[in-house]
Amino acid sequence: MADNINILTLASAMARHAAQRHNVLSENIANSDTPNYKAKDLEPFAEAFMRISQSGQSFSQQLNNAHGNSIWREETITGPGITSPNGNTVSLEDQMMRSIEAQQDHMAATAIYKKAVGLLRTSLGRGA
């Protein structure tokens, strides 16, 4: 039964995406002074979900088949800010905003996960 609970798989995937995105953003911040470093970000979770859903394989199968490899695509950020004279494209303000978004996405994913587990416990008669 637990293998077919899609909301838990989706919440877990959202949390994984947010954590991986936070790692990518922290790498950008760490390289904010590195010459010719290009800022990166992960594709949005909704786009990744649609891409994986259209591949013909279920989302949970893709997650299980990743074997430690990321299923999320990294993209070079072409957004706000200007390139510094040394060729670096990291804007610390932009990275901090993106980091806050990743934190909020992770909090939302864990809230969904907790609520789904609470509903399961209630349906089993064990209370929330």
Describe this structure in words.
With 128 residues, the protein is mainly α. The protein has one domain. It has 4 helices and 2 strands. The protein has helices spanning 6-30, 45-53, 59-65, 92-123, and strands at 40-42, 74-76. The chain has a two-stranded antiparallel ribbon with strand order 1-2. Helix 1 (6-30) packs antiparallel against helix 4. The chain is elongated, with a radius of gyration of 18 Å. It starts with 5 loop residues before the first helix and ends in a 5-residue tail after the last helix. The mean pLDDT is 85.
Would you spell out the secondary-structure blueprint of this structure?
Blueprint: H1 6-30, E1 40-42, H2 45-53, H3 59-65, E2 74-76, H4 92-123
Antiparallel strand pairs: 1-2
Radius of gyration: 18 Å
What is the strand tally?
2
* Count of structural domains: 1
Stretches where pLDDT falls below 50 for ≥5 residues?
Answer: none
Structural class: mainly alpha
Assembly state of the chains shown:
single chain
Walk across the major sheet and give the strand order: 1-2
What gross morphology would you assign? elongated
Helix content: 55-70%
Looking at this protein, list some descriptive labels.
4 helices; 128 residues; mainly alpha
What's the short story on this structure?
This protein is mainly alpha-helical and 128 residues long.
